[in-house]
Design goal:
The protein is α+β, with helices and mostly antiparallel strands and 278 residues long. It is built from 10 helices and 4 strands. β2 and β3 form a beta hairpin. It starts with a helix and ends in a 5-residue tail after the last strand. The relative contact order is 0.14.
């Protein structure tokens, strides 16, 4: 019952976050000569260059990344990402037709719009969803690098590189002021996201204290293709137990939560790791 309620709340938060993001992009950012970042930014650029429907351009760019997410990140992730992207696309179509205008300077409007966008994306990310293909791409690349090298990497360089390409096109082909305003959107939105998701692009250290370590370790290997550091430990009340330490990405955190929830009597904590030295 508790698990079902949490799942329903996840989808409610994803839908709410997608609505906020759609409102910000369609009613505040685009009317003030700014664009979103990531694959949504590419969709907006296609819309401006071709005149095709904004919502169709955005979802059209996102679909290949969504399919890649299904292959590499699993069905559960795809369902939530699909739900968020559908609501986001419909909200773009809906809010485009609403005569809404902020009678203020572009700078203030874009800062405010970036904050709303960041709040919406934070709700989506914290609920295990995603509406930006660049984040899916970054997570896939980081996972592939881990499988080849055995090292955990941050998604930040990939996300920054992706958005540098997007904003370079805006700067060279669209408008220099639009590029600078869009960069402000990125800075404000990511600052809000970092605040509410504790630096989602960074590596996460999950510490698990359990009586049944083998079951959790086997599931982590099978579902996430990750390993754990295993240590014997002792609780003042619980007595002998095992402590597991695992390093994962933010997008793998939801899957690990599900693994932990299936093993009763398990205690876990999550912390952000800025750097791993070897």
């Amino acid at each position: 019952m508790k698990k079902n309620f949490r799942l329903i709340m996840d989808y409610v938060l994803i839908a709410t976050g997608a609505l906020l993001a759609g409102f910000s992009v369609a009613c505040i950012l685009i009317p003030n000569d700014a664009i979103d970042y990531g694959t949504a930014g590419i969709g907006i650029l296609i819309n401006k260059f071709t005149g095709y429907s904004l919502s169709l351009c955005v979802i059209g760019v996102f679909i290949p990344f969504l399919l890649a997410g299904f292959v590499f990140l699993g069905k559960s992730f795809m369902v939530k990402a699909l739900a968020g992207s559908v609501v986001y696309t419909v909200s773009l179509e809906f809010f485009e037709k609403i005569p809404f205008e902020l009678n203020t300077e572009h700078f203030l409007a874009v800062a405010f719009g970036g904050a709303i966008l960041g709040a919406g994306l934070s709700m989506i990310l914290r609920s295990g969803g995603c509406i930006d293909g660049s984040e899916i791409l970054a997570n896939i690349i980081v996972s592939r690098l881990y499988n080849k090298t055995g090292r955990n990497y941050s998604m930040s360089p990939i996300l920054i590189g992706f958005n540098v390409c997007v904003y370079s096109v805006v700067f060279l082909k669209l408008n220099r002021n639009a590029a600078l305003l869009s960069l402000l959107v990125y800075i404000v939105a990511t600052a809000v996201i970092d605040h509410f998701t504790d630096h989602f692009e960074s590596i996460k250290q999950v510490t698990i204290i359990t009586k049944d370590a083998d079951a959790i370790v086997n599931e982590i290997k099978e579902k996430l293709n990750k390993t754990c550091t295993i240590m014997d430990s002792r609780g003042a009340i619980a007595g002998e137990n095992t402590t597991l330490i695992c390093y994962i990405s933010y997008f793998e955190l939801q899957a690990l939560r599900e693994i932990i929830s299936r093993n009763k009597g398990t205690f876990s904590t999550v912390s952000t790791i800025d750097e791993i030295l070897r």
